[in-house]
């Protein structure tokens, strides 16, 4: 009886197994089935539930083992649910009745708890938005493009076409002169007689480096015919979890069985290195004395020249591997093998390169640092060395030094942003909020304070006007340009993008409060200040005819001291207290009492989630050290900017207003602009809009009150009274962007409109006369 039952059970399992495979095959292209599959797949994964909706945490989730035969892949992830607005594209799911009415949510998958915190911080008011990861994935979990970027050119994966434009350009930029050096060293090694084997190597490599593509450098002792080998990594074999009685009948087993854990056959490991006797030969000493030093200089120069443009990094990797590996091998071990299209198996060699340029290298990172920020780091140290040693401008003009110094601020802004993101992702909310509030504005504050100090020592108000222009330029630049360019680029890729209008409304309200508070003293001075005119004349010489006055403006500096001390200064100090208080209220509203408008739910990091597979790029202490060092370097570069900007302000034909609202205002924000564009390209326009709004709110509610506080303790003559052009440009920008944010959706047309308005405002500044103090 038991035998029959077991046979019946085995037969039922086989039938179920066949039916599961048939259903998965028939429904692989069915949209409805795909939707059901997406819903079911979230059940074994870990649902991220927050404290506002405890009812979702009680949902029963089947174990992964119980769903082995129904899913093609099981990848435990941390799910981060975020609102995408009332018109979100993601369909409602079971258990969402408790969510806020009119909003739906989408699920963002992250790999670990640290990344979950980073994503959640992006949606928190007052936190700096950061696109890049703060943890490193294992190489096997990365995309094919990312694996290709981080290869060491020692694996032959596929035979790609080698006759490309980039490879031809390589010949003219690098190949010919490196090959020529080898040809010049070749006879030198032959003349030594004992170094003749290395002369043959130089001849081989001379032909190799002029066109290395599609050729592999291998060790002769381990040389095999690749085309004759059986492919070892050409297919993915699913791992079987069935019992023996389920797989006993091989004839009845289906050809394709869906498996939750596909196993990829690993690449062959590097062969163990054997100690070579070539180091004891006299020819090796001749090579290290006559040939290798020259080639070391040549390949090092080629590495630097090909590394800096970023997109030619494969050439740098190839030269580095030749220098550190190939040239140190025994001459008889070096073999160059030309591959053809029939060599399709994946194997390991000493060196294989098939392309000189790769456009995807803009994504390349080293220890989590983007390659552009890494390549600009030497510019920072060069700026400091040259700037403080060449004060007489014997080698570089003041204009050149100003350009270099302002460019050096860009990578430092990136490092500060990376440090803030790393600390916030690894800390609790209180620490993250403090770090974002302090270091989030450190880039701009260092420049503003150094400029005010420079102007105070020089006894001129021109630097104060430059600081006010930079403040106003940052304000309407973040309100108009950053959202506009993100909407435009994102709208080209995605026809229409939607965002949470309620969260955008909170930012808009705070912008109105900010503008009202910042420009209140300016409106006050226009009401009660003195109207001062530069020149008045009566052309007819008749006292009955009114005077004709030109260049009239309201000036509080010549007003009654009682008016200034009793009314204007107390107003400024009152506003400097109310604005940070409003910022604090915004934090409490968006993060505590009304956090549901963002619909952010992050798990606590337990259960189902892969542990030990991620590596944090920067620890909290390392990130803090980077923040401190970057802040000191930022202050030094800002000081060099203010020192070398004086000739530009004195002799430039361009309005100083324009210099302030463009170069000084927007260059430090370039990393933020890049982050916003990346968010928009991923159809996450909500974060793109929050990037600009967050900076604008911090300018008004944190940076300006800090400048007032600094002036209270160390009087540098900073008065919170702006020119008319700053007043009306900022007010108009806030009104316009608030109108754009009303419907919760955008496209490239609205983005283009914002960008056009921004350039119109810049044109007004360009043709405006310079400030009177300049």
Automatic annotation (TrEMBL):
Residues 165-215 form the Inner membrane component domain. The keyword Lipid biosynthesis does not apply. Gene3D superfamilies: NCX, central ion-binding region (1.20.1420.30). The chain crosses the membrane at residues 168-194, 285-311, 369-389, 395-417, 429-450, 470-492, 504-524, 571-591, 689-710, 716-741, 748-768. Residues 85-107 are annotated as: Disordered. Keywords: Antiport, Calcium, Calcium transport, Ion transport, Membrane, Transmembrane, Transmembrane helix, Transport. It is found in: Endomembrane system. Residues 94-107 have a biased composition (Basic and acidic residues). It is a multi-pass membrane protein. It comes from the Eukaryota. Residues 401-519, 623-765 form the Sodium/calcium exchanger membrane region domain. The keyword Transferase does not apply. Its main location: membrane. This is Cation/H+ exchanger protein 1. It comes from Characodon lateralis.
């Amino acid at each position: 009886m038991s035998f029959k039952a077991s046979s019946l059970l085995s037969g039922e399992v086989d039938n179920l197994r066949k039916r599961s495979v048939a259903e998965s095959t028939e429904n692989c292209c069915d949209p409805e089935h795909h939707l059901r599959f997406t819903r079911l797949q979230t059940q074994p994964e870990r649902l991220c539930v927050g404290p506002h909706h405890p009812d979702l945490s009680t949902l029963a989730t089947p174990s992964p083992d119980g769903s082995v035969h129904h899913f093609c892949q099981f990848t435990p992830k941390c799910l981060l649910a975020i609102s995408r607005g009332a018109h979100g594209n993601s369909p409602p799911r079971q258990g969402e009745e408790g969510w806020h009415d009119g909003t739906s949510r989408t699920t963002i998958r992250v790999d670990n708890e640290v990344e979950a915190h980073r994503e959640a911080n992006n949606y928190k008011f007052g936190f700096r938005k950061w696109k890049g990861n703060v943890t490193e994935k294992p190489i096997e979990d990365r995309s094919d493009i990312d694996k290709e970027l981080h290869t060491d050119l020692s694996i032959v994966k596929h035979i790609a076409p080698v006759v490309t434009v980039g490879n031809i350009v390589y010949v003219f930029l690098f190949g010919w002169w490196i090959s020529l050096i080898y040809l010049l060293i070749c006879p030198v090694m032959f003349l030594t007689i004992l170094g003749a084997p290395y002369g043959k190597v130089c001849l081989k490599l001379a032909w190799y480096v002029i066109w290395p593509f599609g050729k592999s450098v291998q060790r002769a002792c381990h040389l095999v015919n690749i085309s004759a080998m059986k492919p070892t990594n050409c297919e993915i074999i699913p791992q079987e979890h069935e019992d023996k009685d389920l797989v006993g009948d091989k004839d009845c087993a289906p050809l394709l069985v869906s498996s939750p854990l596909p196993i990829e056959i690993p690449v062959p490991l590097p062969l163990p290195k054997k100690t070579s006797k070539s180091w004891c030969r006299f020819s090796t000493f001749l090579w290290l004395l006559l040939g290798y030093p020259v080639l070391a200089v040549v390949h090092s120069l080629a590495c630097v020249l090909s590394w800096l443009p970023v997109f030619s990094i494969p050439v740098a990797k190839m030269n580095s591997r030749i220098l550190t590996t190939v040239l140190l091998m025994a001459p008889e071990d070096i073999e160059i093998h030309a591959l053809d299209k029939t060599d399709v198996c994946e194997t390991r060699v000493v060196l294989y390169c098939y392309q000189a340029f790769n456009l995807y290298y803009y994504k390349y990172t080293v220890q989590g640092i983007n390659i552009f920020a890494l390549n600009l780091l030497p510019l920072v140290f060069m700026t400091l060395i040259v700037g403080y040693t060449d004060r007489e401008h014997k080698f570089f003009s003041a204009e050149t030094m100003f350009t270099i110094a302002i460019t050096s601020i860009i990578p430092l802004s990136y490092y500060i942003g990376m440090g803030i993101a790393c600390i916030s992702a690894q800390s609790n909310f209180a620490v993250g909020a403090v770090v974002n509030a302090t270091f989030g504005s450190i880039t701009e504050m260092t420049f503003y304070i150094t400029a005010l100090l420079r102007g105070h020592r020089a006894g001129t108000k021109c630097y104060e006007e430059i600081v006010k222009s930079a403040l106003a330029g940052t304000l309407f630049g973040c309100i108009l340009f950053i959202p506009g360019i993100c909407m435009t680029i994102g709208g080209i890729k995605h026809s229409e993008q939607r965002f949470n209008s309620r969260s955008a409304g909170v930012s808009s309200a705070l912008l109105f409060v900010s503008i009202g508070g910042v420009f209140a003293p300016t409106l006050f001075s226009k009401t009660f200040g003195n109207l001062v005119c530069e020149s008045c004349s009566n052309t007819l010489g008749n006292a009955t005819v009114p005077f004709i006055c030109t260049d009239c403006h309201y000036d509080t500096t010549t007003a009654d001291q009682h008016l200034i001390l009793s009314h204007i200064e107390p107003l400024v100090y009152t506003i400097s207290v109310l604005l940070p208080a409003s910022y604090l209220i915004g934090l409490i509203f968006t993060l505590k009492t009304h956090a549901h408008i963002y619909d952010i739910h992050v798990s606590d990091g337990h259960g189902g989630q892969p542990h030990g597979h991620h590596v944090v790029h920067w620890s909290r202490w390392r990130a803090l050290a980077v923040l401190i060092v970057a802040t000191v370097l930022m202050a030094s570069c800002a000081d060099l900017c203010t020192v070398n900007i004086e000739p530009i302000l004195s002799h430039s034909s361009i309005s100083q207003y324009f210099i302030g609202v463009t170069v000084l205002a927007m260059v430090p924000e370039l990393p933020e602009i890049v982050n916003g564009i990346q968010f928009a390209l991923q159809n996450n326009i909500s974060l793109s809009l929050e990037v600009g709004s967050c900076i604008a709110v911090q300018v008004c509610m944190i940076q300006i009150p800090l400048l007032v506080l600094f002036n209270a303790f160390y009087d540098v003559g900073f008065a919170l009274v702006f020119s008319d052009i700053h007043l009306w440009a900022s007010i108009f920008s806030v009104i316009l962007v608030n109108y754009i944010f009303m419907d919760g959706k955008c496209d490239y047309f609205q983005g283009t409109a914002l960008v056009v308005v921004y350039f119109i405002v810049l044109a007004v500044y360009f043709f405006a006369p310079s400030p009177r103090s300049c």
